[in-house]
Amino acid sequence: MSYPLPVIIFLIPFLTAICLPMVGLKKRHWCRPLALIAVCAMCVAAVVNLLEVLAHGETRYAFGGWPISTSFPAASIGVEWVNDPLASVMLVVLSSLASVCLIYSGPVSPQSLGSRVVLYYTLILMLISGLTGIVLAGDIFNVFVFMEVAALSAYALVGIPGGRALIVAFRYLILGTLGASFYLLGVVFFYAATGTLNMADLAQQLADKPELMTSKAVIAGTTFMFIGFGIKMALFPLHGWLPGAYTRAPDAISPLLAALMTKVALYGWVRIMFWVLGAGAEIGQIHVLSLLGVLGAFAAVVGALLALSQQDVKRMFAYGGISHVGLILIGVSQGNQTAFAGSLFYLINDAVMQAGLFFIAGSAIYHHKAQTVDDLASLRGGSPWMIGGLIVLALSMIGIPPTGGFFGKWHIILGAIEAHNYWAVAAVIIATILTMAYFQKLFVRIFRDTHLPSDVERIETHPSIRFSVAVTSIAIILLGVCSDPIIRFFRDIAVSAGM
Amino acid sequence: MIEHIVAGLQRPNFVAFVILFLWGFFVMVTHPNLVKKLIGMYLLQTSIIFLLVTIGAKKQSTVPILQAADAAAIATHEVDPADYANPLPHVLTLTAIVVQVATLGVSLALVAAIYQKYGSLDEDEILKRIE
Amino acid sequence: MIQAHESVIVRTMSRLLIPLIQLFALYILLFGQYGPGGGFVGGVMLGTSLILGILVLGPESAPCLLAKKVIHGDGVGLIIFAGVGGLCLIGGGEFLNYSNLRIPWVDTDSHRRYLGILLTQLGVAVDIAVTAISIVISLSSINDSGESHD
Amino acid sequence: MTLLFEISLLVLLIITAAGAMLVKDLISSVLILGSYSFLLAIVWAWLGAVDVAFVEAVVGAGLATVFFLLTLFGTAPKDTRIRRTTTPFVAWFGLPLLGLLLLYVAEDLPRFGSPDSPASVHVSPEYLKNSLQDTDTPNVVTAVLMDYRAFDTLIETAVIFTAGIACVLLLRRNQE
């Protein structure tokens, strides 16, 4: 009986989400604690799973026990999950950030929900189990179905506040469905060319028959999958839905979406890119990795530029996230271990940073009704702890040594130099300077008037908000301090990725 | 280049897929009316499913349901896969059709809520009413 | 909610049709393993029979009241499906491996899988029927809300 | 089934799709979409996918049209007539280019209906050979759907469950 822990990690939020509508019929106030317990249990199980995988290495889980009666190397008959070190690290990050977001969502959730708060928490748990499925999936069609679960719950959660949020949610739905359909078209082309849906089997087919790699069907499949994932990870030209969605979403949902949705899509593309296609894939003689690097560089620079010109705080942080996706793509596409390890480490850091920034933006709105950058000054008087958290996260976004952000960027730059892509190094530096610029604009607005505005009395921030901002700031510093073992861990993942 | 495209035109199914896919994509992205966008989305998704099933189809093959007469043949493993259609694309299609209707349900709920709030289905009209 | 249809013919015909649709849906559901059909189609047809009642027979009719009670059982179908999968997990196999279902009077593996497939089809049918009815009731309750607030 | 029948079916399919997209009145375009789904169900039956034809007829023509019409009945009649839209120049130029590119790709796809295409040689013979011994179900599609790839169907049912919850969350905000 193969190692069941990954399925248990998935089943905890999934079964809780299924039973919540039944439980919520009578005991409406039970659903938030129940959801919190489920996600914390999932967090503990994910840590145990990480330790188990580090001790015994990768395990595969074939659903329905189907590899028994066949001669195929991989279980390409049934659906399979791959529980390798990268997936277990992503599971730990996913579940811990989800639990912090749920703790944060206590006071900040929309109040006008009434009896529908049960369904609100059901959708949050469905979103988390959908993302867990994408992280662990070993079957390309399974990734599509999990993407749909996560996407549908995200559309509804974004649309809760009503009014303008509905229009933004509709736009997010149209672009999200377009992305999912392009991904499905990619799956269809791969299935037509090789006849299998299992990632391991697909990789073996592509390795066995080299002429398949340059066949037009596989190239079209790769392109469509890249466009599909590009929309899901909000890569620059396809990012139209992200700023509106994250700004108009309820303040409790923005950190959950910002920290997890684009990062898991990026993880999915990295898995397909390196574990299925192998790093040597070409689209018509243009090396895919260099194409990826150019697109990433463009996204990093333009994302930071757009963030500079924003007035709304949440919209500025959303554009910051888009620029970081570009940065990670630069690192992934250098093709050597340093940059790959650096970009995966930066992916984890960015998830924590985005969550922290949206915690602070949400608490500013919750306590001081501070929507735009100008009226953030009231934050200084009202809650100095938030300013402390903001400073730590800003240091990490820019990349100053004690925080984790620096080490990620540093390894990406080292890898780019190693691969002699100096335009990539230039793009990373320009993006850093622009990030510095828009945070400088933010801090000037906060600390400009030297005298403390008298009317702003000291507001006692809600304990759970203070807890979540503290946890993310400490996590960023901890990631920075013990970054060396983590980077070494990612280096041997890069080896398994064929670097 | 030209003979590649002419070779492509030899496949009526693929040509039908290309026409439906591009037209649905065009209407879904550019049409101002919200419900018309959803009709375009519906056509886009059905065209992808259409391509998926044409890949699974085989000439002179029956429906993949093993009749009792084949029970003897199956017992001795001589089921010839060539005379049954490929069942895997049908499974993926069943899932994709139901995903398509689920997405349609949620999008129509959003359209209904938008109409309830802004009283119009036309995108430009709604944008005017936001200010 | 949508009011009862004004013409008598439509109301009586639909009152006649609803049990027939349900009977045919059950046939399709239970014979999904021998011929075309199965969980998805049977579930949607069960849902459609009640949707016909909601749309045509008005809010106080029996199908509509039944539909209002049914939509509270949102997750039941999924609980059946995941429950069967969980039973296999508890029975010692992988998740959704029906040959580990501990059913007393069944001995051969393939018969256990046959029953596993039947149970999961029931779960899928219940889930789709409840969801279809719940979406229709949500969509048809747009105009009776009148005032709009967010 | 002569080729003539197949070609005419596809042409009819494209005509109904064109009708659904070009008609100005929303309600009639939804009804044409219903007929498009019906024709698509026939195409599935011709391609040998009987289960899919059944689902397409019930779900595509039945449920989707009911959802569309319910939403449109909720809106005022003046909104169901849409105004003339001008197609941007890039569409007339860009889309045919994309079409040619897709046709260029079509060359490497396996020929229609060839029994030795990779899709029908690699994995699916295993399903056809083993499904009757393993699961006693003659309908191989149901066996694959509910047993070999049962996890896909479980997540598929979760998608439907999420859609139901999302609709209630978005629309029924005034019940309580």
Task: Write a concise keyword list for the protein shown above.
heterotetramer; A: 499 residues; mainly alpha; two-stranded antiparallel ribbon; 20 helices; C: 150 residues
Number of domains in the coordinates of chain B? 1
Rg of chain C, nearest Å: 19 Å
**How would a textbook summarize the main sheet of chain B?**
none
Tell me the overall shape of chain B: elongated
User: Can you count the helices of chain C?
Assistant: 5
Could you name the CATH class of chain B? Mainly Alpha
The Cα radius of gyration of chain B reads 22 Å
| Helical proportion of chain C, percent range | 55-70%
DSSP strand (E) fraction of chain C? under 5%
Number of DSSP strands of chain C?
A: 0
| CATH topology-level fold name of chain B | Helix Hairpins
Task: Give the proportion of residues in helices of chain B.
Answer: over 70%
Q: Roughly what is the average pLDDT of chain C, rounded to an integer?
A: 86
Q: Between the first and last Cα atoms of chain C, what is the distance in angstroms? A: 21 Å
* Low-confidence spans of chain B: none
Shape of chain C: elongated
Order of helices and strands of chain C: HHHHH
Give the count of structural domains of chain C: 1
Structural class label of chain C: mainly alpha
End-to-end span of chain B in angstroms? 51 Å
Structural features, described:
The complex is a heterotetramer of chains A (499), B (131), C (150) and D (176). Chain A is mostly helical. In chain A, the strands form two sheets. Chain A has a two-stranded antiparallel sheet. A two-stranded antiparallel sheet of chain A has the order 3-4. In chain A, 75% of the residues lie in helices and 2% in strands. With 150 residues, chain C is an all-alpha fold. Chain C has one domain. Chain D folds into two domains: 1-81; 115-176, no CATH class. Chain D has helices spanning 3-22, 26-46, 50-74, 89-106, 118-121, 124-135, 140-148, 150-171. The mean pLDDT of chain D is 85. The chains are: A mainly alpha (499), B mainly alpha (131), C mainly alpha (150), D mainly alpha (176). Chains in contact: A-B, A-C, A-D, B-C, B-D, C-D. At the B-D interface, α1, α2, α3, α4 and α5 of B face α1, α2, α3, α4 and α6 of D.
